[in-house]
Structure formats: C-alpha cells, structure tokens
Amino acid sequence: MKFTDGNWLIRDEYKVLGAVQVHDFEQNEGKLTAYASPQPIVTRSNMLDTMLLTVHFHSPLPGIIGVKLVHHAGVTERGPVFELSSQTGNHVIIEETDEEAVLKSGSLSVHIRKGPVWAVDFYRDGERITGSTQKSMAYIKEDNGNTFMREELDVGVGEWVYGLGERFTPFVRNGQVVDLWNKDGGTSSEQSYKNIPFYITNKGYGVFVNHPELVSFEIASEKVKKVQFSVAGESLEYFIIDGPSMKEVLGKYTDLTGKPSLPPAWTFGLWLTTSFTTNYDEATVNSFVDGMAERDLPLHVFHFDCFWMREFHWTDFKWDERVFPDPVGMLSRLKEKGLKICVWINPYIAQRSRLFAEGKENGYLVKKPNGDVWQWDLWQPGMALVDFTNPAACEWYASYLRELVDMGVDSFKTDFGERIPTDVAYFDGSDPMKMHNYYTQLYNKVVFEVLEEKLGKNEAALFARSATAGGQKFPVHWGGDCYADYESMAESLRGGLSLGISGFGFWSHDIGGFENTAPEHVFKRWLAFGLLSSHSRLHGSKSYRVPWAYDTEAVDVTRFFTKLKCRIMPYLFNTAVQATELGLPSMRAMVLEFPEDPTTEVLDRQYMLGDSLLVAPIFNEQGNVTYYLPTGKWTHLLSGEIVDGGSWRKEKHDFFSLPLFVRPNSIIALGANDVRPDYDYADGVSLELHNLEDGKTAATIVRDVKGAAELTVTASREGGAISVQVNGSGKPFSFALKGLGSIVSVEGVTGEVDGSVLKLAAGPKQLAFTIHI
C-alpha cells in the first residue's frame, strides 16, 4: 500500500504522523519502551494536542528482537494470533547512555537514539544491518476514517529480499508490491495460496511481521531504499531475526514459529492420482495400479481426488456407493499391493452434504453476523464453512476423518482454505480479517492431529495447498494449479524455492502440470524435476497422468527417475531430518548454500536438493540448459563426469539426464533398494566420498525410517591419507572414492578393495580406518 506521492509528498487522502523524536524511555521486566513524538518537543506547548507512539522493544528468544508500535492501546485485541515460542531468563540486556538506549539479545542489539532526531538501528556484533529512520515508524489516517500502522526498514546496496511465502513472481522480491492475502489464483499470477509475513535478505537477517491479517509490503518499490510494511489498525509488531547466516535465520525463525514435522518415509515415494474431473471406479484405479506394476514402475501412494464422494455432496466423507460399493474392501485390496492411500477433502460443506444439517443444527458452521449460516454457490451449491474456532466443530469434523483412517486411509489432501469470507462471525469472536489467512492453519491442524493420533508421531502427512506462518508444522504442501507448459514448470520452481526460504521444509507440485495435458516432452522434463523434489505426485485436471498415456519413452523416464529417487532416499531422508531440526528446506535456493558467491543470489532455475546435490531442471524440448556451478570439482551423479565449477555451463541432455551434480567435499549415501522409499537405509548402503580436498572433512548420517541416526560417517583428508570414522549399525556397507583415484591400501579394517571401492561386511558398530590413495 502506497502512502506517499514520490519522495517528497504525501498522497492527498492520507495524513502521516511519523516518529520524529524520542520523549523518554521505560524499562520493565526485560522490555524497553520508547515514547516517540511526531513533532519536535521544544517547548511545553509542543506536548499538547499531539499523539505519542509507544514503541515496545523485547526479545522472545536469543538473537530475535521484537518491536511493537502502538497508537491507541485501548483497542480490544481479537484473535487469532500466531503461536510463538518464547523463553524467560537473562538473555536480554538493557543499557542506557546519554546518547541512546540499547536492548541486546545474543549477537543482535537495537539502538534507539536520544536527542532531536529519531532513529532505530539494528546491529549484529557492532555492524549495522538495518534500521528505521525518522518518520519511518508512523500512524496513518485515511480520509475515510481508516487507520494504518507503518514501518520502513532500510535496504542496503546489493541487498536482496526473498520469501513472503510461495510466490510465483520473480524470486528476488526487490521492486515488488506484495499484499499477503491468501487467494486461489493458480501459479501464473501474483496471487498466492501460501502468504507468509516473513522475509529474509542476503545480509543474513530476517523480518517476521506478527500479523495474520493482510500485511501490505512495498519492497524497494514505493521507496527504493526501504522495505515498507503496513497493517490496518492501531498497532504493528515485527521481529528482527539475526543469523548471521541465512540458514541460521531460518533456524531461529522456525524456533519462533515452529519446526517442520517429519513426514513418514513412504511419502517420499511416487504418488499417483485419479486426477480431478476424470471418470474412475475400482476397475479404473486397478488398471492404473496394475499398469504401473506391469511396467516395472514403482508406485507408493494412490490418491483419490474429489469424485470419490458423490457430486454436489462435497464434503460429506462418504464414498459414492454407485461407484465404490465396497470401499473398505477396495482399500484393503490396494494396501495388499503395498500402497498407501490418500483421499481429497476440504473444509467446505455443500448444502446437500449429510454434514450440512448437522453443522447448522449444532453451530459448527461459520455464520453471518445476523446468525444465519454463511453460504454461497461458488464451488458447491449452498456451500458453507466449518468453523474451526469452535472446539466442538473441530471434534465433529475429526470424527469423520477417524472413520476414514479406520477404513485404511493414510493421508488427506487438504485442498482449498483460501477463499475465506470476511463478512462473517466466528464462534470464538475472532476477527474475520485475521481469520482469512489464518483459517488454513486451524483446518490443517485438525487434520494433521487426527493422523498423528491414529497413526503415531512422524506418521502423519497432509498434501496441503494453503498455509500461513506456522503451517510448516503440518507438511506436506504442494504448489497448486499450474499449466502444462515449461513456463508453469519454471514458475512452480520459483514458488517452491520461495516457500522453502520462508520456513517450509517440504514441497511438491503436479508433475506434468495440472491444467490441460502436457506435450510428451514437457511431461518427461517435468518427471525429472518432480522426482528430484522433496515429494513427487502425478496429478492432473481433465486427463489421467499415467505415463503410458504419453508415450513409451515416458514410461522409461518415469521408471528411471523413480528408481533413482528410491536409491537416494538415505541421503534425502537425512535432509528431511535436517528440516525438522534446523528449519532448512529440502529444496534450497542456491543462495542458502552458497551465500558468499554473489552469482547465486538471483538463481531461480536451479536448486540444491539438500546440502550436497545440485539440480538444474530443463525447461525446453531440445534439452538445452544453462546453469551455474560454484567453485570446486563437481561430479555428475549419473555419468560420473567431474567438472570444475566457478562458471556457467551450457549443455544438452536427453530425457534420462539433467545437470545433477554432487558438491565437492560431500558424502552421498545411496541405498540398496530402488523400488521403495521406506526400507533399511543402512543395510548395504553405498557411501560415496566426492572430491574431498586436502585438509577438508566430509560427514553424513544414515538414518532409520523413524529419523533416528543409525550410521554416522566422517572422513578427513591429509595429503594422500583419508581417515574415516564410522559409528552405527554394524551392517554391511561400501565406501567409494569419487574423484580421488584408486585405493592403494587400507589400515585398521579388513575389507574387499575393488579399485576405488572398499566393501565391508557386517562387523563392529564402531570403526576407524585410513584409506591411502
């Protein structure tokens, strides 16, 4: 939202009262409060007929400083509010001098200047990282009576801004206007299903605006040296989160808002759906499942989309008996084939649904201010909304989900949750403006907790479309409705990278595109991208997504990359645990892994899958690709080719290849199973040590399917000697050198040496040996 007219003038309809001078300070229980005047206080007459901005500075966690601007404190605070972590203790230090007041938290400090010029500066160990200058903090009145609170934070030369949720516009936010308001807008617009009021910059700090309602951002747009954000009302709160690295910012941000939960290992396999408006019954489903098996295509999850329920009855959680007369038996038969089952749901209740009358009678549906049930005909005739602010409504909704889990359902695709009205009244009195974006959090929480309750911790997984801050606690999320073309494939990747850098650990997209039917070449290129994503799903709108519907080669490409993903599961599942422990995304923007390399700052057509695999999808039929490799010797995982980084590369690939490189100084764990994502990763694992440089150390962890460390491996090189420490399972494994020549001799362990590979049988759980090259 723009309030100014160029650099000097205010727009006619607004009156901006910005902080000009501090009047005084107060300290109370670790909180520092400043009172700022919108005009110089020269005489006592300046203290009349004016306002004061109350600015509270506090710290919920070390390295995080909160700032809350308040105009009128008498406003009744109505929920919802984000669930944030905090700790008490002595991590806050407050100091005052003649020149300034300072609040310190870890390496981060905020300095509020005394004297005639208002200034708020944030420092990391003595280095200023951003700040708010005179008149940046402001209370704003609009001619129509609306009021706003605004802040403007400095953006330095060469500073790039990222995040704000899953956004399909350019990856770097500088120059963009972003209004955080969840909408069902597809992947080809500025709208977003997942609006997250958090951004991060390449200077190694983040900003979280603690408001679930509409937050309007001007990112180096209205004022090109500022990130401006504003909300309606009488108060505004935000947090500065220090890294100093971008990875550490994500760690602290997810400490504050919640770490991603660990999805079960089976979810990382290949999902196949019925598609949306296609016709299907048990025979059709079995033709898909059996067709995959007959073609040696590993399949792990089958998803039933909307029409598992009867038309015009969504959502009633009842199988359409005309099409599925024996749903329990059908699910049992599918599970005997080794499949997990997912079904589509949403929080919208059609008037013909059996839930509508129950919900209306018991007050479980969102109401109009006059007490009527809120309804419209968009999506479903007479559609209403479940009121998840009512605990009884949550339990009612959950009871139907439990019945489905008892039938054999393992996961729910929690679709929709974006088109939430504001002309309504909630059971708990929540502010409808705040509930618009926050509704999805309550919806996904109810569903996720049912799965945890019925299946156990780390056995719950959604396939969710909408989200707000904290939604990362309920994975997995997917990118929504995309077209079946290369442009949508690229915009989907931008959205996934943006969501990942906004605190979400796991993300997926519709392989081949949702709308329309992709040409064969688009589908095959998208397969490689999709199966080198955190989660992988074949899904469409009006046509089936079985590979043989495209051509014979599509079947072969599906097989190749599905089996590859199963083989890299020991590596990928360790990456998943990193997401839960460190708040890092599985699919990482290049700048996260290489913050010291300025070339990576704007890259959005390639990514790191975990910390050691670089993936550059191909966005054209010809197979041409241009990508960047940072400094070092990189090994192509598929071909074994070793190339020097530090430059751009141009190549051409067939459908069975793409740039997929192993980072130097890495250990990649490859599993012994290429048909399932959930198996004993440590048994027969191949540990590949790639291009370990002299004086460097590489390490990895191989985990079990519950996420516990089963095998910990560290390798250090001094000249021609590589010292290896292994703690763990005692199961057989191999240790292979990549880019390091052949093994000359081994000390400390007995095993079979074959060129550059050392094969070890089952033995002690702790090993220490040296390889000479």
Automatic annotation (TrEMBL):
User: Which keywords belong to this entry?
Assistant: Glycosidase, Hydrolase
Glycoside hydrolase family 31 TIM barrel domain ranges (all copies): 260-574
Domain of life the protein comes from: Bacteria
Q: What are the protein's GO molecular function terms?
A: alpha-D-xyloside xylohydrolase; carbohydrate binding
**Gene Ontology biological-process entries:** carbohydrate metabolic process
- Keyword check for Secreted, yes or no: no
Q: What residues does the Glycoside hydrolase family 31 N-terminal domain cover?
A: 56-217
**EC?**
3.2.1.177
Q: Which reaction does it catalyse?
A: Hydrolysis of terminal, non-reducing alpha-D-xylose residues with release of alpha-D-xylose
Where in this chain does the record put each Glycosyl hydrolase family 31 C-terminal domain? 583-668
What's one Pfam family here?
Glyco_hydro_31_2nd
Q: Please report which protein family the annotation says this sequence is part of.
A: Belongs to the glycosyl hydrolase 31 family.
Protein's name in the database:
alpha-D-xyloside xylohydrolase
